[in-house]
């Protein structure tokens, strides 16, 4: 009969518009799948062109090159005797669709367009694609001539159909369709589909992985079946990190789990499963069987091929496993580190430069780079030839082998403490000690001469000398003097990034890393065009609270004892004069709110979609034990004033790793005005009315 089917799914580190590299990785995944006995191979969403092409989807070149890659796949002996399921954009009757192209032995079996498009948060699929709205309907698709010459087919089925092989029935979902309330797998399962596939382009968010796993397992818990999920992994050209987690589930339980974070460009999961387990599981669910008897059938594409062998009684099948989730601290250690590695190797730069202040944010950024160095050494130790080749190119040494993370860190990571007369010796010592423990090439410099020169120009031109508020100056003067220091640090960071390696007789340039956290960005507690202005920022989507927990994780797991004093010190910008040699300025006093409060404001503003009045209404209950309604009103008003006054800074925010769903990233995720009426007169009046009533 044939009952044991062997299927493969994968996580591929595809890169937008890297058609050659994408093709190589697809071929490699097919080779691995076949070598492990798989008869079906599933790949990530839009894997041929890369998911993050954005407005390049409008270009006919993107469609042309996708078909050229498909031609290479179809004509290759590597794709023989295995059903291959690949993703690419397809233009059908002048409408662009996000599609799966499923083929076997030089014949296209089905082109299946996406039904539910992702169009929230970071996703804008409706901008480039149209959803297929004709349920259970198939049309003829006329193939381009280059494909006709390979397949001998003039037309192929295009639409919402399933594949009927000799031994089972398969149905496809694409990413968002799993998350939709009316997921196709529900009706397909009732119509006898036994294997569901899902090709995803799903990005990492802290604490999100369990949601995806739960959805996959629940898809087959009520209805029975085998669910196979493939996902993109890595940085394919923007702020998102796609976190793999390819998986295979059967009857509500995980049977194969892929890694969430790794430097392997190609990861393939293979599982052998017994179809009779699906059939017996479904047989006793009477409610399912009653619903199945009334379901509208899907068009079936007959495939003269089997996923099982006729005599497979002795073939061992996979057993359920327990999914292993990372802690948020592990996620911060691994996700941004892998994102940095992709960015470094694909930008063809020689390393990173970080202004290291001795505070929590820049120290956390340094620890993420150190974690990246750990991941590189571990990957090389495990035989990853691609990582070794990239490392050798980055350090410009053909025989180099990265074995010690500290030694590799010295080669690719430069840290720079930029002191001023307002800097304390404590932060200088903390930065130096941390640099020694992670192994970075550390520079100490003083910016006072540059600050005096810039301020001196202003004094000569205007005849006025600005002073800090502690010396009798106004708040305007004090803020301007603080901003000069911050902006000079940005200028010097880029100067040293371009020339530090040149001064050491080494080739290449460095990428500048920023280190503003998500809460500071939300509040606008940063100088526009200061050293938070960088090439990329690995912590820009992470909260201060999570960063503190991550620092504690690094103390325990990397033995970085220098972080203990950094953890215990109050966060400070060190831009105002010292008092008796000690720091008098602190972040939370400057902001007029705590970092913990900022996280709450951020989640209410973005995730709960709360304006000033709604936020007030929620907080008077959340904080009823610690604040009066009048105090809550004052806090909410202060937050919205500061948020709106500083929103313009988000338009120039350094591209940051997306890790939180309350990120204020103005580029694509959090679309809002940057010129507000910051008095919020109507909204605040509604709050005042409620306060008086209470």
Question: How would you sum up this structure, described in words?
Answer:
It is a single chain. Strands 1, 2, 3, 4, 5, 8, 9, 10, 11, 12, 13, 14, 15 and 16 form a 14-stranded mixed beta sheet that branches. A four-stranded parallel beta sheet has the order 19-18-17-20, sandwiched between helices. It is α/β, with parallel strands linked by helices. It has three domains: 4-302, Carbon-nitrogen hydrolase (Nitrilase/N-carbamoyl-D-aminoacid amidohydrolase); 328-581, HUPs (Rossmann fold, 3-Layer(aba) Sandwich); 592-693. The mean pLDDT is 94. α10 crosses α18, α11 runs parallel beside α14 (425-438) and α15 (448-462) packs across α16 (475-503). The protein is globular. The protein has 24 helices and 20 strands.
Quick recap:
The chain is an alpha/beta fold and 694 residues long. The protein contains 24 helices and 20 strands.
The low-confidence parts are none
CATH homologous superfamily caption of the largest domain: Carbon-nitrogen hydrolase
Stated plainly, the CATH topology of the largest domain is called Nitrilase/N-carbamoyl-D-aminoacid amidohydrolase
Helix tally equals: 24
Descriptive key words:
alpha/beta, 694 residues, 42% helix, Rossmann fold, single chain, Nitrilase/N-carbamoyl-D-aminoacid amidohydrolase, four-stranded parallel β-sheet, ATP-binding, Gln-dep_NAD_synthase, 3 domains, glutaminase activity, EC 6.3.5.1, NAD_synthase, 20 strands
Give the topology:
Layout: E1 4-12, H1 19-35, E2 40-42, H2 60-75, E3 83-92, E4 95-104, E5 107-113, H3 125-128, E6 138-142, H4 145-151, E7 155-159, E8 162-164, E9 169-174, H5 176-179, H6 184-190, E10 195-200, H7 209-221, E11 226-234, E12 242-243, E13 247-250, E14 253-257, E15 266-274, H8 275-283, H9 286-292, E16 300-302, H10 328-347, E17 352-355, H11 360-381, H12 385-395, H13 405-412, E18 413-419, H14 425-438, E19 441-446, H15 448-462, H16 475-503, E20 511-512, H17 518-523, H18 544-557, H19 563-568, H20 587-591, H21 595-607, H22 612-622, H23 629-646, H24 681-693
Parallel strand pairs: 1-2, 1-11, 2-3, 8-16, 9-10, 10-11, 17-18, 17-20, 18-19
Antiparallel strand pairs: 1-15, 3-4, 4-5, 6-7, 8-9, 11-12, 11-13, 13-14
Helix pairs in contact: 1-2, 2-4, 10-11, 10-18, 11-13, 11-14, 11-18, 15-16, 22-23, 22-24, 23-24
